[in-house]
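Problem statement: downstream parser choked on a complex file, so we are re-checking the raw output for the protoporphyrin IX containing FE run. The parser issue turned out to be on our end (a line-ending mismatch), but while we're here, posting the original submission so the record is complete.
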Amino acid sequence: DDAGTFYAEIGGHPTFQRIVHRFYQEVAVDPILRPLYPEADLGPAEVRLRMFLEQYWGGPRTYSQQRGHPRLRMRHVPFVIGPAERDAWLRAMRTAVDEAELTKEQDERLWNYLVMAANMLVNSPG
Ligand code: HEM
């Protein structure tokens, strides 16, 4: 039951769908990010990120059912992520979160987490 979770508070599945879809529209045209994605079709990557974020914020646990333990740091090892890649990722995500029209408090809570997680995944000095 996701009642009372941040997932439910910000609108559940449609909100996460909207944010992550918008994020990947930015990735698709970003000269730093696009080359990092191994697959021509960004659709499956979009689904994985959405499922992960939904699970993290108290929604369905589909991510772990399909992918196992997140181990995000390990899963990003194949990609060179320096400050430029982190900043590009956060820029694309900022655009996506802005369009979700969250309250100031909701926005801050989500954004603080995303910045922390993006910093954690930097694995190269650049
Ligand atoms: C996967 C890049 C930050 C969550 C990926 C992939 C790339 C990538 C290239 C492979 C696409 C795929 O096949 O799924 C980056 C870059 C980041 C970043 C450049 C900049 C710091 C983040 C953050 C999160 C995240 C902050 C979570 C808050 C994920 C997830 C997957 C993924 C859940 C799929 C893992 C799996 O199940 O295989 N990322 N990422 N990433 N990323 Fe990131």
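For whoever reads this later: The chain has one domain: 6-120.
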